[in-house]
Amino acid sequence: MVRKLSLVFAGALVGATAVAVVNTTPLGFQANAANSNAADTYRQLAIFGDVFERVRAQYVDVPDDKKLVESAINGMLTSLDPHSSFLNAEAAQDMRVQTRGEFGGLGIEVTMDKELVKVITPMDDTPAAKAGVMAGDYITSIDGQEVRGLTLQDAVDKMRGPVNTPIELTIMREGVDKPINVTVVRDIIKVKAVKYRVENDVGYMRVSSFTEKTSDDLKAAIDAIKKEVPADQLKGYILDLRLNPGGLLDQAVSVSDAFLDRGEIVSTRGRDAKNISRFDSQAGDLADGKPLIVLVNGGSASASEIVAGALQDHKRAAVLGTRSFGKGSVQTIIPLGENGALRLTTALYYTPAGKSIQGRGITPDIVIEQPLPDEFKDMNVTRGESALRGHIVGAEESTEGSGSSAYVPQEPKDDVQINEALALLRGEKTNPAFPPQPDRAELKQ
Asked: Which range is the signal sequence, renumbered to this chain (predicted)?
């Protein structure tokens, strides 16, 4: 209660100070300042219009007006942060298809960094993953055309195309001296949001993305595991969020809620300090309170960090692995009618303990590094959100930044992080952080 009162008082004090400053300013000066700002804005827009007309009239080739306008809009948005962008009608439709869990393409989650397309993660069982594209790769050219000078949306559009058609990507990979040429055959990407298996007495669930299907798929996986393993023999669950790039906020809330009986899951805060949205869990733990370990690595971003942060703060699960990507910003999709949509960063995520995810990521309770094979040494490092140019600096971002290695072995027997989780759940190993103690959870009051 003391903490709550302190925070409220601090907020009131700051607000009162701001009001006092405003009230000492003559009203006439305020009006003049507002008019001056508006006039300056219109002057800048007039400059844009002048440049636009001169390009149309004098450029060596006749430019495409639509592309000029879209590029100008995207230039404005990408100057804000790496995740804000303009989606034309086609791209907006593609995004709607993706959130349904089925889309056409290569199967990679990407962002723009250093004027190149950076691979955040290849999705499981997709053409890109099968062709050897890795998290942390930089795509420098697409079918021979350089990526520099393209917007992220332009690059994505070029990588999409008819099913069964090949595309050649030129990739720079850390630790490799020469560019790598990779041929990927486009296909329909049908992402099964949750895959599960039973490891004798432990239920293993891998969540690859947060689409409209994720929550239902998770519930089905838990039900299937319960039917396969009697309750008195089931030691617990592993929730694998490694290489999960994120997705829908409501699905992250639903997945967290599946394991929580009560309490806040996540809050979002916008520009206005009063603009806070809170998402709470409902009664009922689908896992019946069985021990839970959550796996994360440098490829775990956004919605997957919400889940890991909620379960960690409530001491419902122990988080195991390496520091997550650190994308703690909320993108709101604003429809623009037939013209497409605006993807705009409007808020930041905060865990139940009030910690900002942005540029910080989730620090595991149990840090277990995944060894890299000799051929991958020094190649597969995800630097995280904090290393992206123009990113929003998080309130709790540190000099060490966010992100970590994002390598996951193909064979479970080689997966050190999974094997460590299994050993802990079976009591073969011990760690002070496991099992976590919910009664010691330090949550925001």
From this structure: 1-20
List all residues 6 or more positions away from 44 whose beta carbon is below 8 Å from its beta carbon.
none
Q: Tell me the backbone φ, ψ of residue 147, rounded to 5 degrees.
A: -80, -30
Per-residue pLDDT for 227 more than 80?
yes
What are the boundaries of each domain within the chain? 102-190, 194-440
Catalytic-labelled residue, pool 281, 302, 324, 405: 302
Which string of DSSP letters, residue by residue, matches 305-337? HHHHHHHHHTTSSEEEES------EEEEEEE-G
Report the b/e string of 234-256 with b at 16+ CB within 10 A: bbbbbbbbbbbbbbbbebbbbbb
List helix spans (H) across 60-171.
Answer: 65-78, 89-99, 127-131, 152-159
CATH topology of domain 102-190: Pdz3 Domain (2.30.42)
* pLDDT for residue 15: 30
Q: What is the pTM of this model?
A: 0.74
The rounded distance, in Å, linking the Cα atoms of 124 and 194 is 11
Q: What would the two tokens of residue 114 be?
A: 């250093």
Partners of residue 171 on adjacent β-strands: 139, 180
Sign of the torsion angle spanned by Cα atoms 243, 249, 254, 257 = positive
Catalytic residue among 113, 217, 313, 365: 313
Q: What is the mean pLDDT of residues 299-308?
A: 96
Which residues pair with residue 264 across a beta bridge?
Answer: 280
Q: Could you give the angle at which helices 249-257 and 303-313 cross, rounded to 10 degrees?
A: 30
Catalytic residue, chosen from 213, 290, 327, 355, is 327
Domain 194-440: CATH architecture, name and number where available: Alpha-Beta Complex (3.90)
Could you give the C-alpha distances from 271 to 203, 275, 283, 330, 346, in angstroms and in order?
41, 7, 32, 12, 7
pLDDT tens digits, one per residue of 47-91: 999 999 999 999 999 999 999 999 999 999 999 999 999 999 988
CA distance linking residue 296 with residue 312, whole number of Å: 12
Q: Does residue 254 sit in helix, strand or coil?
A: helix
Nearest to residue 119, comparing CAs of 301, 280, 310?
301
Q: What is the pLDDT of residues 94-128, one digit of tens each?
A: 788 778 776 678 988 888 888 999 998 888 788 99
Q: For residue 330, which of 275, 378, 400 has the smallest C-alpha distance?
A: 275
